[in-house]
Amino acid sequence: MVTIQTLKFAHCLLFFSYLSMSACSNDNPEDVIELQAVSSVQAMDKSNQANAADIYVNFETNDSDLVAEYRVYVSPAGSTDDRSTDDWFDLSASYYTSSTVAGFFLSASQTDANGDEIEEYIDYQIVVLSVTSEETGYARRLSEPSENFILTQQPEVTTFVASLGANDALAMDDSGNLYASNFGNWSSTGGSGNQILKIAQDGSVSSYAIQLNGPLDLMYHSSGSLYVVDDNNGTRGHILKIEPEGDNDQIASINGWPGGLAEDDNGNVYVSNYSSATLHRITPDRMVELVSSDARLRGCVGIVYADDFLYLANYNDGKILRSDLSGNVTELTQLEVVPNFGLGYMDKLGDYLYTTGIGSNVIYKISITTGASEIFAGTGAKSTLDGVADYAAFSNPNGIVTDETNNTMYILDYGKPSIRKIELKQ
């Protein structure tokens, strides 16, 4: 039999139960944690795996002391608004990568927000969900989406020879063997180095020429000989011809500080000059001719021949100059470099020039036709870090030689002497 006293007792139990539940519920505005969303979300393509592991994500954290995890989702561009914060939170772990800090690569197995594999050449955006611990009822806040990004196959930098006894210029013969000059350290008026090394395509290193005096640029000549700038003493430098058998022959002596070498279609050799505002030509019969005397030529080292023009890279001021074979000089472009520690050597691949930023620790790419320039590889940090071109790092890159057949280039680091290989993707 239900009495009035029983009903009153039951009513009291319900009332106290309600009070207890209200005290623990996040429906009470005083108990809800207000999170700030992360900001400045960035997605960067830093690998060539063709999946989510290519994606490096960074962002600015807010209320990090309250956050238990950051969940990073990849969504086809323009579709991030199709889900509520709760919808994102309810997606299973295969849809996101979790981290407690900013700055990390995504998991290779992560899918996009639709459950599809993440692929190259598709527009994506990133969103980041900040999530608190379970004790707080999983308070959460979704970021604004990142800028659109696309995964691509990028040029990739690897270390071909990790440690090398040479630090200046590179050349390549018809068989793909590399040659590296060792200028060494500054000693009196020249370099302390005395040899040229030969590096086979399997990476094995051997001595090719010795008893030199601070050798600088190298050039593999169409005759099958190796040309080298040697024995600069501040007032003149020698141009040597080294035969495959090892015979060493001086073919010219040029006043100033001759730096770089280039060959035209007729076997003539052109010589840039660091300390003299001149450009010289050495004919096949060893006649030395002055091609040009122009104040802008002072400081030039790297030199390339292409289609009846010469292109010169200025070590001091970062200018790329163009000269016809009669010596008329014009400026192609101006690169942003470290003054007086600007550009090293230069080579050509396709319709572009590539030159080393020895002080800025990057490789520059310049259109031969328009002069438009960009940083092709390197973050600017002085280091030896392999990876895709805009993630890799160089240590005072100096020598450079390109391999048109294999769409590849090699870089000789001066700061930490090693040979880096850059494979350009088709």
Give an account of the 3D structure.
This protein folds into 2 domains: 35-142, Immunoglobulin-like; 156-423, 7 Propeller (Methylamine Dehydrogenase, Chain H). The model is unreliable at 1-30 (pLDDT under 50). It is built from 2 helices and 34 strands. A hairpin with a 5-residue loop joins strand 16 and strand 17. It is mainly beta and 426 residues long. The protein has a 5-stranded antiparallel sheet with strand order 31-8-34-33-32, with no helix packed on it.
How does the SSE layout of this entry go?
Blueprint: H1 4-24, E1 39-45, E2 55-60, E3 69-76, H2 85-90, E4 96-99, E5 104-105, E6 124-131, E7 140-142, E8 156-161, E9 170-172, E10 178-182, E11 186-187, E12 190-191, E13 195-199, E14 205-209, E15 218-220, E16 226-230, E17 236-242, E18 248-255, E19 258-263, E20 269-273, E21 278-282, E22 288-293, E23 300-306, E24 309-314, E25 319-324, E26 329-334, E27 343-349, E28 352-357, E29 362-367, E30 373-377, E31 387-388, E32 397-403, E33 408-413, E34 418-423
Antiparallel strand pairs: 1-2, 2-5, 3-4, 3-6, 6-7, 8-31, 8-34, 9-10, 10-13, 11-12, 13-14, 15-16, 16-17, 17-18, 19-20, 20-21, 21-22, 23-24, 24-25, 25-26, 27-28, 28-29, 29-30, 32-33, 33-34
